[in-house]
Write a structure and sequence with these properties.
The protein is an alpha/beta fold and 218 residues long. It is built from six helices and 13 strands. It has one domain (2-215): Rossmann fold, CATH 3.40.50.
């Protein structure tokens, strides 16, 4: 389902390679796709991408009773993971992952990109109180300049997070390099890797502004 690519021996990038994902990404790219369908597609792509991204979550063996016998089986180990969405567009991905891990804790970090400098500006931060004990899944639909992702990762590490991975719908080489430069220990999984950023720091061909398209605000 996936094609792993290594940015360095310590870092990893996984690009999903699956016809269903390709089809849904094509629909997301289409300027004629409306907000309702765009939201549904973002959730569907997140689910398909998370399936691959979360295959390394730790498990433990427990004994359960089936209708026929008792057996040893695997379940997620330790405290439930925490899903941290970069506001506002990341919320749609948080909702999707909660359908896979309903007891996950949720954190939020509000960052917007300054239109002139393209640098992230923080306006909100709220993490689970014991986030340092949990596997953390950072989500944002677009990994463009990487500025917001790097800022979010730094805040999470300052909070004591030790195990962290990122999921995006569309990324680009500039964004991946920006994250893996200071944070080579953070695996990144994307549904699609586009060629470049344009002069306005938007991914090309990309999806446009994911937040505006999700919420119909433009």
């Amino acid at each position: 389902m996936s094609s792993p690519q290594s940015a360095s021996p310590q870092s990893s990038l996984t690009v999903i390679n699956h016809p269903l994902v390709d089809h849904k990404i094509t629909l997301l790219r289409d300027v004629n796709t409306g907000a309702g369908e765009f939201r549904s597609l973002c959730q569907e792509v997140t689910l398909l991408t998370a399936y691959e991204a979360l295959r390394a979550l730790p498990t433990e063996t427990v004994t359960v009773e089936t209708p026929l016998t008792t057996t040893d089986a695997k379940q997620l180990a330790g405290p439930a993971p925490a899903v941290v969405g970069i506001l506002r567009a990341g919320l749609i991905m948080v909702e999707a992952i909660l359908t896979l891990i309903p007891n996950a804790k949720v954190g939020h970090i509000g960052l917007y990109r300054d239109p002139d400098t393209h640098l992230p500006v923080e306006y909100y931060r709220k993490f689970p109180i014991d986030i340092e004990r949990r596997e953390v899944i950072l989500v944002d639909p677009m990994l463009a300049t990487g500025g917001s992702a790097v800022a979010a990762i730094e805040h999470l590490k300052e909070a004591g997070v030790k195990s962290l991975r990122m999921i995006a719908i569309v990324g680009c080489p500039e964004g991946v390099a920006a994250v893996h430069g200071p944070h080579p220990d953070v695996p990144i999984t994307v549904a699609a890797l586009d060629p470049k950023l344009n002069d306005s720091a938007y991914i090309v061909p990309g999806l446009g502004d994911a937040g505006d398209r999700i919420y119909g605000t433009k």
